[in-house]
Amino acid sequence: MKKFLTVTALFTMAVILTSCGAFVGSPVVGTIYTDVKYPVAVTSNSNATKVGSSKLTSILGIIATGDASIDQAAKNAGITKIHHVDAHSTNILGIVANYEIFVYGE
Amino acid sequence: MVNKHKRRACFAHPSFIILLLLNFYIVSAQDLSKYYTSIMQNDYVLYYIAPQKGFYNDKNIFTYDITYLSKSDSITLNFSFFNKNLLILDSISLCINDECVTSKLQKIFIEQNKNKWQCRYSSKFSFNFIYSFFTENNNKPKIILHSSSAPILLNINKNKWKKLSNLNNKIFSVMKANN
């Protein structure tokens, strides 16, 4: 059991210190669990009436797919005038990480 | 001394770690803010229910998201239908308890994504109907997409719908309470 824990701890440290694992950029990162929302951009346009989102996912830092571009999120809702952009990152133990963009506009 | 060792061993046991992680997952799953966003505007609140999936036809996937401006009677349902063939859709019907409501579609875009066509459309429904549709958990709903060819019937798994309707019930309760 002690050997198993040592190996697990060493592996986890190696994954974190070598920036491996599924982590997405966010202002704060929790190595065990992350669930944070934060701002990305704001414009002078006011009164948003539409919201669009786009998402990307990373698994174990090995496979990463998706399109979390502002362009895609705006397109998904038919937004032509952007009001502001927020992001939402989640991560569980560096196994699964999601990064989602929310574009507000009209 | 022995008890102390036993207690330590208990916390280090893999099943304890798995239970701890499961707990994290359950706690985070109950967090509603993961599934919707709301922002205050001058005269209203803008709600957005993040994309949900579960409805399908054969191997074709249907995803939808919901946008609602408080104090408004109508609600916007945007959806993507991923299909092998290029489809030009005309209208969408939401059916629950033998009642179907149809709405004309407004095209957002049609694109080819890998091997499938992504047809993205927007539709408008009354708030009350969408509320009753997405919170009904006794009966399974159906969605019908109308095109120039045969209509496409979309179904959902019973358990998946139960989870979605419970979640939507909580989100719509927030919307109603702040309306």
Pick out its properties:
heterodimer, A: 106 residues, alpha+beta, 5-stranded antiparallel beta sheet, 2 helices, 42% strand, elongated, B: 179 residues, 6-stranded antiparallel beta sheet, 4 helices, 10 strands, 32% helix
Question: Briefly, what is this?
Answer:
The complex is a heterodimer of chains A (106) and B (179). Chain A is of the alpha+beta class.
Task: Give an account of the 3D structure.
The complex is a heterodimer of chains A (106) and B (179). Chain A is an alpha+beta fold. Chain A is 23% helix and 42% strand. Chain B has helices at residues 2-12, 14-29, 127-135, 158-178; strands spanning 36-40, 45-57, 60-69, 74-83, 89-96, 99-104, 106-113, 116-126, 142-147, 152-154. Classes of the chains: A alpha+beta (106), B alpha+beta (179). The interface between A and B is medium-sized, with 27 and 29 residues.
Give me the secondary-structure topology:
The complex is a heterodimer of chains A (about 110) and B (about 180).
Chain A: H1 2-17, E1 33-42, E2 50-59, E3 63-66, H2 70-77, E4 82-92, E5 96-105
Chain B: H1 2-12, H2 14-29, E1 36-40, E2 45-57, E3 60-69, E4 74-83, E5 89-96, E6 99-104, E7 106-113, E8 116-126, H3 127-135, E9 142-147, E10 152-154, H4 158-178
Antiparallel strand pairs in B: 1-2, 2-3, 3-4, 4-8, 5-6, 5-9, 7-8, 9-10
Helix tally of chain A equals 2
With strands numbered from the N-terminus, the spatial order across the biggest sheet of chain A is: 1-4-5-2-3
- The tally of beta strands of chain A, per DSSP, is 5
* Distance, first to last CA of chain B: 60 Å
Shape of chain A: elongated
**How helical, in percent, are the residues of chain B?**
25-40%
General form of chain B: globular
Helix residue percentage of chain A: 10-25%
Query: Main β-sheet of chain A, in a few words?
Result: 5 strands, antiparallel
User: Total number of β-strand segments of chain B?
Assistant: 10
Average pLDDT of chain A works out at: 85
Structural class of chain B: alpha+beta
